[in-house]
Amino acid sequence: MSDAPKSHGRKTIRPSLKPRELMTEQPELARAWTAQVVTLFPEAFPGVLGLSLTGKALQEGIWQLDTVPLRDFGEGKHRNVDDTPAGGGAGMVLRPDVVGRALDAARRRIPAAAPILYLSPRGRRFDQSVARSLARAPGVTLICGRFEGLDQRVLDHYGIAEISLGDFVLTGGEIAAQAMLDATVRLLPGVLGNAESIEEESFSQGLLEHPQYTRPAEWQGLEIPPVLMSGHHGEIAKWRRAQAEEITRTRRPDLWEAYEAAKGIKT
Fold first, then answer.
1. What is the CATH number of domain 204-266?
2. Homologous superfamily, domain 6-185
3. For the whole model, what pTM was predicted?
4. CA distances (Å), 229 to each of 201, 216, 236, 242, 245, in order?
5. What's 150's DSSP letter?
């Protein structure tokens, strides 16, 4: 039985005529932000996380991805990871002894300050504030749920928080894990080329983002708003703030209410 997670990512990039492979095993990187994913489907990773800015940051060693194959810690000849629910009912439940062994092996390779999160539809909803909090931590261990869920004793024993991507049910936590990691990794220093992008995007100041435009100046009879072509940065900033406020007020009353409440506290 293997007790070492599979690591993806490199410390350096060297010129080569051969394609670089993200999925080869690598030693843990001393200063990299580390994401551990306990999953029945390690082959699903890095997935989209290996592309674009997150993939470049993975290659450069800004962050490291460790997949922890749950099946490696299964019971018996067939490496069973689940059993029938106590008390009866449909489906299967992930066994506490199996998940516990996987967590014990994984947590030896990550700082204790890194939180453990279980991806579950009954958890707190993931949002930008959670992403910012995770980016400030040394890393995170994510447990991808399957079947009817995870034995409650694992959550209680390890003090695991539950987190949800939204009010819907997926067949497993792998897609949600990739979405959460994408939202978090892009906040790490050095991942985005323009730090201002983070300050201006949706949710950064409690508002949805203002509309964006680019060339050509006229398309299908529609023009870029004149204020954006004026070169007057103060007026542009005022227009963008007004647009962001109006969009948030009409599309997301919940965010608008929180934004107005926060403004009241500050004033």
1. 1.10.1270.20
2. SPOUT methyltransferase, trefoil knot domain (3.40.1280.10)
3. 0.84
4. 20, 12, 9, 17, 21
5. B
